[in-house]
From TrEMBL, chains A, D:
InterPro entries: ABC_transp_permease (IPR001851). It is found in: Cell membrane. It is a multi-pass membrane protein. Keywords: Cell membrane, Membrane, Transmembrane, Transmembrane helix. This is ABC transporter permease. The keyword Transmembrane helix applies. Pfam families: BPD_transp_2. The chain crosses the membrane at residues 20-41, 128-148, 169-190, 221-240, 261-288, 300-316. It comes from Sinorhizobium garamanticum. PANTHER family: ABC TRANSPORTER PERMEASE PROTEIN YPHD-RELATED-RELATED, RIBOSE IMPORT PERMEASE PROTEIN RBSC.
Automatic annotation (TrEMBL), chain C:
Belongs to the ABC transporter superfamily. Residues 1-21 are annotated as: Disordered. The keyword NADP does not apply. Residues 28-263, 274-512 form the ABC transporter domain. It comes from Sinorhizobium garamanticum. GO terms for molecular function: ATP binding. The keyword Cell membrane applies. InterPro entries: AAA+_ATPase (IPR003593), ABC_carbohydrate_import_ATPase (IPR050107), ABC_transporter-like_ATP-bd (IPR003439), ABC_transporter-like_CS (IPR017871), P-loop_NTPase (IPR027417). This is Sugar ABC transporter ATP-binding protein. Keywords: ATP-binding, Cell membrane, Membrane, Nucleotide-binding, Repeat, Sugar transport, Translocase, Transport.
């Protein structure tokens, strides 16, 4: 009901003058930012920087896609940052123990699956709020990761693994390819398969979904497992990128992921969301940071500007949606 | 083990402080003292450290070893605590006269050493003491990091006027953020010749960016503190140098001093445990090697 | 054009024609079925038999246990004890899936659909058409549209469900149940939000399904519908089954007596009072969903608004009440021109609105009944800084008593109430507020005959005290019998105005449809 | 509708054996923890330690009460931690500039009011999700605070101010008195005044509240202003306790506050909550930390245990609630 409320609290209608801006989709806003930065700096449109940008947004983008599945069911997954840090430790540990790379990767992803299943178990069987169970694993996982590394880091010596994140394929950074590897199946899953539809149904009215014969519990499991597995996957990428396993990494990334998702139009009340939205959201955030760095904006101003831009972007996006209806 | 001497560090989740704790643990074992290892989970969590200090004092230990996370903020709480037990300070100072003894590294001095190291490395590569440099600080609002930055900038300004600091950045404590900042710095400042990454996590992230772009020859990076990864970078020539303190000794001697104090023995009021610049050239020296490979467990 | 049959068969949803048991034989039997909610006995041991191919009506007071019975049969809730026989076999019916797989489907009293999904998505939810793992969205939309058209429901299959009115949503739920077809189809007050016109369509659908061999259970508070449709009728009272009659042997008075254990002489209680001062007058009022509405309400009279679904009556009421911004027109309150730009302003003038959707607009479902009733009057109940808790309790209890809301306490959450009792809470809320002009939008939806009569008497009491009433209803007999003046809405405009019983049924309906 | 869903996913019924535990209210659970710690350590029940405990839970408790107002309206305030850090800077700055103490305190609280009003403005007028607008101020406020202090700290020399947090009154730490100073009016406001009822009504069904003449916008303003003002108040207490103004302090306290609130029985879907619940929640969290320190639990284990205990406590509480119905 809250969703309808927000919609119906109509607010002021856009004035004519700046209506072009309102018409911009998120993609438009992103391109607009890029154009702007192209004018403001010489280095923005260099192939090197575009590569950097694509790399910088990649991990948040993948997390945001996973998070979106959960948010669509009207849930939340606060643990993703901790899962990233934790799985970076796991893979580093396995590699250090001499486990072959392929097995280490599979085992790490399997841990992601288990964590997600545990979240869903807490929600479905124990009746805990999603916020609480994922906050609890956030706390505990960081603790376990720190125990494993004894508060330190585990270096990764496997060259094949650490080179991966640096590699390019067809001129595009491999990290960005990983976004595509995640996004395409995610798109098919969410928008084209019936399981995706069930996520929306559960988020919209789980009782109605249940009465229609949708297995609400299974859908919940699916959503949380997908989110944690995406996080575990990002853990692998992070480990590859920074070459260490460290349990305190990726702190606060859960908020980044949620913010990307919400900027991309996902509603925290559930049943509204897409796969491309969070991707755009993540790259908008990455662009803001990249641009601020290129412009050598004082890092304190950078924070201020990021906050303001989030407001502006979401506001324009809201206006556009409202206009469309 | 009736005697209890808790040690309170700034951040238990960092390798540096784990070495301090390892030293304290070893001292505990050697001297037959029970050493609870305490500390906040982030260097910026001042309130957390105050609470931990309060709790530690409530347990009526023989003495407390603490590394105050913020100079001013820990002053009063330490005064308060010192009414009940002797307090030994390690690593950093606090605004209190109640310390019985101090074993510290001068972080400002550490920053100066980093500046000297950076200037030397750049001179070796380019033959000149000039060019564009940058500093990346892991987190704002952390006393020791502020002091390193201050020492570094001051030394650069007074001793090496040829260098121009083109970026003075603060990250959020994440290696990835340091990495991203560094790649963007490289893009935005093609003439960059040197960077000071003032703690372990930033050295890891910045080092990674240098390694990814194979710029070890062109951009000289000085890090602070060490672990396996950064030592590896040093060997590969990705990092030009590391400023290394002696955390193990701080921990060990801290507990040792505290025990002595609790027995009523007289101890030295101030001990400087020192900071050293480690480069590829001197890293094999036994003294340095011991610093780089502390016996953590 | 794809129709109901085709979609059903092709999709494998509808079981092929033919009865699992011969027509007229028991298809579903309940033995000592019982359901307790904590201390509340919603259904006491009930023993009933449904015969294959019949239309079986169930009637009873609010809270008699009708919806509970339906929920038990469709796996929404599980029984406390008792036995259910399906085609002679004992069955659990513990989950919705089990019920669906046996061909038991229901249109629930409260629309239970997903507001964010499209109409088609809702109709196919849980049974999507797939090809190689992917959904066939187009095919489903076309099929859903085909079904809707076949049923004569004028609804777009691609629209988002939440953008439809509740009545329209109810039709979607109906179409969905019919399409999934079944052995056994249950309608829980399906006409509550439908106009007479739509109801006719529904009846035709029910007869059609019956002729195809589907067994139908039909729950309604409108007895004339029961007599029109049903083969047999069962009565529930206080969770107990008190009798079943073949329709030929039943009469209205007897059914009412069985239901409420007393008799009422006359349901439509119409007293005429001399019209007093003009309370409100609108001139050319225009806003979202309505245009150029001019009408007057005087003290002591009921002004009825009739129209089809989406005719704009509710929108008009909300506009008048300050909920929506008006784009043109004037409002005069007791002869003075006023701008009603907020709900609060409307309340202060002395207008009360009991909105049409108790779930979306009327109630805070997860809050106690007492809080809901007192919500408009907390200002009045405040003494100094705090609320006078004694008065708060007294006011809630008074409404609960006066309206015979069936609850152990004012602290029970509104969501635990039966549909009718929820409606009474909405009304109680505005009675405790008190006002000069009451706008009742569908006030008797889901309300049993006994209470209906009480509500009508209550109207009379309000009128007697000098209030005026705007009565919006899709239940034709009600507006027709009670209104001193009757305005017919079509497409947001007033297309006809009549005095008390001056026009014939046919005339009013023709205006509403636009024939 | 989400609330009903949570309720109807009934889950397993408690078995007889351990049913006594299930009967415990949150207060019971807290006392149970205290008893346990009393047995396990000698120092727990010392006056000194109890003082510490009361001091340590105080700030989170106040934040949690403020946060609860917002959550009851089905909103969320992610900015509280940042507001604490920011206002600690403001008061330090004002004091350093020679502003008299009383004026500095009032001005700081006024800033809290303004921040809350800005949040409500974003939600009510701009139609932004609460999550986004408060996340944006979180980011920006830290930036502004860092700008003011230039990334460093401002020392507070006013002895009266810094001594306050260490003082006792009637043997009880002044910080705990501040909890009472906040909690009593908060209780009256939420549970005894009509505005409290309005918060619940807005959180349950804002449309129904609006049609009942509740000024939904004003109620939203009220909730967010109260939350931010509580946070500003905590900022004052923190500044007094640590004797400096530092914009990066109180990081992550928003999650602590929300967790306390949820542990205390507040529903993130709105319309369910109390004043005593979050207080208990905050002191349960403080007790866990205090106890772990006294027991000399390794700080990594401490995290793991905290996570598990949160799950256990909320689970028991859920069971009890379910049993009551
Ligand atoms: N979830 C619940 N918790 C507690 N009591 C409930 C719950 N659901 C229903 N009841 C109670 O069970 C009784 C029967 O309710 P039910 O909904 O079956 O009535 P009904 O005959 O459908 O009435 P109406 O005509 O008003 O819809 C009522 O007293 C109701 O308050
Ligand atoms: N928020 C809105 N925005 C745009 N159109 C709307 C909105 N709400 C309703 N409508 C449309 O306005 C028209 C009038 O709807 P309204 O609910 O007033 O009809 P009604 O006569 O009360 O019918 P019902 O019997 O369904 O209550 C409908 O076509 C509806 O779809
Ligand atoms: Mg019912
Ligand atoms: Mg209507």
């Amino acid at each position: 009901m809250s969703v309808e409320t927000v919609e119906s609290s109509a607010g002021p209608t856009p004035r004519k003058g700046i209506s072009i801006l309102f018409g911009l989709t998120l993609l438009g806003l992103l391109l607009f930012l890029w154009l702007l930065l192209g004018f403001a700096t010489n280095s923005f449109w260099t192939p090197n920087n575009i590569s950097n940008l694509l790399r910088q947004g990649a991990m948040t983008a993948i997390l945001a896609v996973g998070q979106t599945f959960v948010i669509i069911t009207a849930g939340i997954d606060l643990s993703v940052g901790a899962v990233v840090g934790f799985t970076s430790v796991i893979v580093a540990w396995l590699l250090a123990a001499g486990v072959p790379l392929w097995l280490a990767v599979i085992a790490t992803l399997a841990i992601g699956v288990l964590i997600g299943a545990f979240h869903a178990f807490g929600i479905v069987r124990m009746g805990l709020p999603a916020f609480i169970i994922t906050l609890a694993t956030l706390t505990s996982l960081r603790g376990i990761g720190l125990l494993i590394t004894n508060g330190s880091t585990i270096s990764i010596t496997n060259e094949a693994f650490t080179n991966f994140s640096r590699a390019n394929f067809l001129g595009v950074p491999s990290l960005f390819w990983m976004v595509i590897v995640v996004a395409v199946p995610a798109y098919i899953f969410l928008h084209l398969s019936r399981f995706g539809r069930y996520l929306f149904a559960v988020g919209s009215n789980s009782e109605a979904a249940r009465l229609s014969g949708v297995n609400v519990n299974r859908t919940t499991y699916l959503a949380y497992i997908l989110s944690s597995t995406c996080a575990a996957f990002v853990g692998l990428l992070l480990a590859s990128r920074i070459g260490i396993g460290n349990a305190t990494q990726a702190e606060g990334w859960e908020l980044q992921a949620i913010a990307s998702s919400v900027i991309g139009g996902t509603s925290l009340f559930g049943a509204v969301g897409s796969v491309h939205g969070p991707l755009l959201g993540a790259f908008i955030l990455a662009t803001i940071n990249n641009g601020a760095n290129l412009l050598n904006v004082n890092s304190f101003w950078q924070r201020i500007i990021t906050g303001l831009l989030i407001i502006v972007i979401v506001y324009f996006d809201q206006l556009r949606r409202r206009g469309e209806r | 083990q009736d005697v209890t001497i808790p040690i309170i560090v700034k951040d238990t989740t960092s390798f540096y402080w784990q070495i301090v704790l390892a030293g304290a643990r070893a001292a505990g074992k050697d001297l037959g003292v029970n050493v609870p290892e305490l500390g906040a989970q982030s260097e910026s969590d001042i309130n957390g450290q105050i609470s931990i200090l309060e709790n530690a004092v409530a347990g009526s230990p023989a003495a407390v070893v603490i590394s105050p996370t913020e100079f001013k903020a820990l002053g009063k709480p330490i005064d308060e605590a010192a009414k009940a037990v002797p307090i030994i300070g390690i690593d950093s100072a606090a605004d209190s006269k109640a310390f019985t003894s101090f074993l510290t590294t001068d972080n400002v001095q550490g920053g100066r050493i980093a500046a000297d190291g950076l200037a030397a490395a750049i001179k070796e590569a380019t033959g000149k003491e000039e060019g564009e440099i940058a500093i990346i600080t892991s987190l704002p609002g952390v006393g020791s990091l502020d002091q390193r930055r201050e020492g570094f900038l001051d030394q650069m300004k007074t001793k090496y006027p040829g260098f121009k600091v083109v970026a003075d950045k603060y990250a959020d404590g994440q290696a990835t953020t340091g990495l991203n900042m560094m790649t963007d710095l490289i893009t935005a400042n093609p003439n960059l010749v040197g960077v000071f990454a003032s703690n372990l996590i930033m050295a890891q992230g910045v080092g990674q960016a240098i390694a990814e772009n194979n710029l070890g020859d062109k951009i000289k990076v000085i890090g602070f503190d060490s672990d396996e990864k950064t030592v590896g970078f040093l060997k590969e020539g990705v990092l030009a140098g590391l400023v290394v303190q002696d955390p193990y000794r701080m921990g060990y001697d801290g507990v040792k001093t505290a025990l002595a104090v609790s027995k009523g023995e007289k101890v030295e009021a101030n001990v400087d445990t020192g900071a050293n610049l480690v480069t590829k050239a001197n890293m094999a020296e036994p003294k340095i090697d011991a610093l780089l490979n502390p016996k953590v467990n | 054009m794809i129709g109901l049959q085709e979609v059903g068969h092709r999709h494998g949803l509808r079981t092929p024609a033919g009865h699992p048991v011969p027509k007229g034989e028991p298809i579903l039997e309940l033995h000592s079925l019982r359901k307790n909610y904590g201390a509340v006995e919603a259904l006491k041991p009930a023993t009933m038999t449904f015969l294959s191919g019949e239309v079986h009506a169930i009637v009873g007071e609010n809270g008699a246990g009708k919806s509970t019975l339906i929920k038990l049969l469709t796996g929404v809730i599980t029984r406390t004890s008792g036995e259910i026989l399906w085609c002679g076999e004992p069955v659990q019916l513990a989950t919705p899936n089990e019920a669906i797989s046996r061909g038991i489907n229901a249109v629930h009293q409260e629309v239970v659909l997903c507001p964010h999904l499209s109409v088609a998505a809702n109709m196919f939810l849980g049974d999507e058409m797939n090809r190689r793992g992917l959904m066939r969205k187009r095919a489903m939309t076309d099929a859903a549209q085909g079904v809707l058209d076949d049923l004569g429901f004028n609804l777009p299959a691609a629209a988002v469900l939440g953008s439809l009115t509740i009545g329209q949503q109810q039709l979607v739920a109906t179409a969905r149940a019919a399409m999934r077809g079944t052995q056994f189809l249950i309608f829980d007050e399906p006409t509550a939000y439908l106009t007479r016109q739509e109801s006719e369509q529904l009846f035709r659908l029910i007869r059609r399904l019956q002729s195809e061999g589907v067994t139908i259970v039909y729950i309604s508070h409108r007895l004339e519908e029961v007599f029109e449709l049903a083969d047999r009728v069962s009565v529930l009272r206080d969770g107990t089954h008190v009798g079943t009659r073949p329709i030929g042997e039943a009469n209205e008075a007897e059914l009412i007596a069985l239901m409420i254990n007393r008799t009422i002489e006359q349901i439509y209680h119409k007293e005429h009072f001399p019209a007093g001062e003009t309370l409100i007058e609108t001139r050319g009022l225009t806003g979202p969903g309505f245009a150029d509405v001019s009408l007057t309400v005087r003290a002591g009279e009921i002004v009825g608004l009739y129209g089809l679904i989406g005719a704009g009556r509710s929108e008009f009421a909300l506009g008048l009440y300050g909920r929506h911004r008006l784009s043109a027109g004037e409002v005069f309150w007791q002869g003075r021109k006023v701008e009603i730009d907020s709900e609060r302003k409307a309340m202060e003038l002395g207008i009360a609105l009991a909105p049409e959707s108790r779930r979306d607009q009327g109630l805070c479902l997860n809050l106690p009944i007492g809080l809901n009733i007192n919500l408009p009057v907390f200002r009045r109940l405040t003494r100094g800084l705090t609320i006078n808790r004694a008065e708060e309790a007294a006011n809630a209890d008074r409404q609960i008593r006066d309206l015979k809301i069936k609850t152990p306490s004012r602290r029970v959450l509104a969501s635990a109430m039966s549909g009718g009792n929820q409606q009474k809470i909405v009304i109680g809320k505005w009675l405790s507020h008190g006002a000069k002009l009451f706008i009742f939008d569908e006030p008797t939806v889901g309300v049993d005959v006994g209470t209906k009569a009480e509500i009508y008497r209550l109207f009379a009491r309000l009128l007697e005290k000098g209030a005026g009433i705007i009565l919006i209803s899709s239940y034709f007999p009600e507006v027709y019998e009670l209104s001193d003046r009757l305005h017919v809405f079509r497409q947001g405009r007033v297309v006809g105005s009549h005095g008390y019983r001056t026009a014939s049924h046919e005339e009013v309906l023709a205006q509403a449809i636009g024939a």
